[in-house]
């Protein structure tokens, strides 16, 4: 008999049958049961056999089926019968544990259909295995609750809620929608929610209501980006309605008007400035709209909350009645969201976060086809290598770590840093148990006792993974 090609030492290979598409490998368990599972008696006699077909990892581009010759025993003491227990076999399905683990990992980055084809099972099975795999990950991967939280919208087939850690530029959750109930339920179950200090969001009332209801201590901040874009929109409305009233010849005089008008005044070159001056003379409304847009952006140059509010009131008074309609949305939003908008001046949200979120929204369109929301969520939240870790210290984790007995740490020094290999315990949260090689990670400090925190999915890494088509 050839060596154990299965690399499953608890089974003996009895024979191999093969055709173009499949391997059928006959095996039996090496260990024979020594006692009755019902009464622990050691007086057992053979009582027949049955053959069980179990799927295993594909090999040489063929499907692999293990035909396990399973023995049945009868206990002489209690007279009951039982089949021998089969090691390394999934408890829920007729497949090896390692196949289930592999399928789960693969399903993060591949379609269910392609995995089903490679393994020789149905897509339904892949989906079910993936569901279990994700449930296991959920139990073991816990993202730190952000002190500065972002609640925004992202489009994945439909508009979804995205929860971010602003200080770390990471995603910590995707919600199926942005209804008040959905956001409130998420916040309610969040460990450490009472420590959330600021929540940055766009002007979406259900999110605000959920935050006020569940984490009333958190200050709501509307990011500058979401506010000033309204000024661009208002100016665009004026420009479009003007164009509609013009003759084709007049319209040609407004070459690249959208591009020039959306620019900030300080960024205009000489030619653009000249064009703008000409348009302003011919079409005073357009000039007024541009001025209002620029002055609205100027509110954000205010050095304090009070100054910003004063600038807004000044700005509001200067809106000419002819174009007031186009700017009505801004006035309304400012009225409904005054404090969250002004809070920005005390707690400016980092631009890095808003920018990276916008880049993510742009590449997100590449995802989405052929997956359920749950699968997409898992793909994004559990994308391999995208989690951001920063080492810090807390009493709770230190205690938890001491209690973890299986964990061992072997480390050796490298110039300037330590390479750190861990198995079991904390690290096993990141890599499934069967992972053959624990991956190294680098400690920034020399304190080997510091536990690892997980701040969620690094947005820029995620963007790179999506752009490379690896998700
Ligand atoms: Zn017995």
Protein model, in words:
The protein has 471 residues and is an alpha+beta fold. The protein contains 18 helices and 15 strands. About 12% of the residues have low confidence. Bound molecules: zinc ion. Zinc ion (ZN) binds next to loops. Zinc ion binds next to loops.
List the helices and strands and how they pair.
Elements: E1 11-18, E2 22-29, E3 44-59, E4 62-75, E5 81-83, H1 97-109, H2 112-119, H3 123-140, E6 148-156, E7 158-165, E8 170-175, H4 180-188, E9 198-201, H5 205-214, E10 219-222, H6 224-244, H7 248-252, H8 257-262, H9 270-282, H10 284-299, H11 305-317, H12 328-336, H13 338-346, H14 351-364, H15 373-381, E11 387-391, H16 395-403, E12 408-414, E13 417-423, H17 425-428, E14 441-443, E15 452-458, H18 459-467
Parallel strand pairs: 2-4, 6-9, 9-10
Antiparallel strand pairs: 1-2, 3-4, 4-5, 6-7, 7-8, 8-15, 11-15, 12-13, 13-14
Bound molecules: zinc ion.
Zinc ion binds at residues 36, 38-39, 41, 75, 77-78, 80.
Helix/strand/pairing category: alpha+beta
Beta-strand fraction estimate: 15-25%
Query: What's the number of helices?
Result: 18
pLDDT averaged residue by residue: 85
The radius of gyration is 31 Å
Number of domains: 4
Low-confidence stretches: 391-448
Q: How many angstroms does the end-to-end distance come to?
A: 42 Å
Task: Give the cofactors and ligands.
Answer: zinc ion
């Amino acid at each position: 008999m050839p060596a154990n090609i299965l690399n499953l030492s608890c089974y003996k290979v009895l024979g191999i049958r093969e055709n173009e598409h499949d391997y059928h490998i006959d095996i039996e368990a090496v260990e024979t049961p020594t006692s009755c599972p019902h009464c622990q008696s050691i007086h057992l006699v053979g009582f027949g056999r049955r053959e069980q077909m179990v799927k295993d990892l594909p090999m040489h581009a063929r499907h692999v089926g293990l035909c396990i010759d399973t023995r049945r025993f009868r206990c002489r003491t209690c007279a009951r019968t039982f089949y021998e227990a089969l090691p390394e076999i999934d408890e829920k399905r007729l497949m090896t544990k390692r196949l289930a683990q592999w399928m789960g990992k693969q399903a993060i980055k591949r379609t269910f259909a392609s995995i089903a084809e490679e393994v020789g099972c149905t897509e339904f099975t892949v989906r079910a295995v993936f569901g279990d795999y994700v449930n296991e990950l959920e139990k073991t991967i816990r993202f730190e609750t952000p002190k500065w939280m972002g609640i925004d919208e992202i489009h994945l087939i439909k508009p979804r809620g995205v929860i971010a850690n602003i200080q770390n530029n990471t995603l910590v959750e995707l919600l199926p929608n942005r209804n008040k109930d959905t956001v409130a339920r998420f916040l309610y179950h969040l460990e450490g929610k009472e420590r959330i200090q600021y929540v940055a969001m766009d002007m979406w009332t259900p999110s605000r209501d959920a935050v006020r209801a569940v984490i009333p201590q958190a200050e709501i901040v509307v990011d500058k980006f979401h506010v000033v874009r309204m000024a661009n929109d208002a100016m665009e409305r004026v420009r479009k309605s003007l164009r509609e009233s013009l003759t084709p010849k007049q319209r040609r005089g407004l070459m690249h008007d959208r591009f020039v008008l959306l620019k900030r005044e300080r960024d205009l070159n000489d030619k653009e400035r000249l064009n703008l001056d000409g348009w302003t003379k011919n079409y005073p409304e357009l000039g007024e709209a541009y001025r209002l847009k620029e002055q609205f952006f100027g509110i954000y140059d205010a050095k304090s909350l009070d100054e910003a509010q004063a600038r807004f009131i000044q700005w509001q008074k200067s809106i000419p009645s002819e174009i007031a309609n186009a700017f009505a949305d801004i006035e309304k939003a400012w009225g409904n969201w005054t404090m969250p908008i002004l809070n920005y001046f005390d707690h400016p949200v980092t631009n890095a976060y808003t920018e990276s979120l916008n880049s993510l929204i742009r590449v997100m369109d590449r995802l989405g086809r052929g997956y359920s929301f749950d699968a997409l969520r898992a793909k994004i939240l559990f994308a391999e290598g995208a989690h951001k870790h920063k080492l810090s210290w807390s009493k709770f984790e230190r205690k938890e770590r001491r209690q973890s007995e299986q964990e061992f740490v072997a480390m050796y020094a490298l110039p300037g840093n330590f390479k750190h290999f861990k198995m079991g315990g904390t690290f096993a949260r990141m890599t499934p148990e069967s992972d053959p090689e624990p991956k190294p990670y680098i400690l920034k400090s020399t304190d080997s006792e510091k536990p690892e925190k997980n701040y969620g999915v690094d947005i820029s890494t995620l963007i790179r993974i999506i752009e490379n088509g690896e998700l």
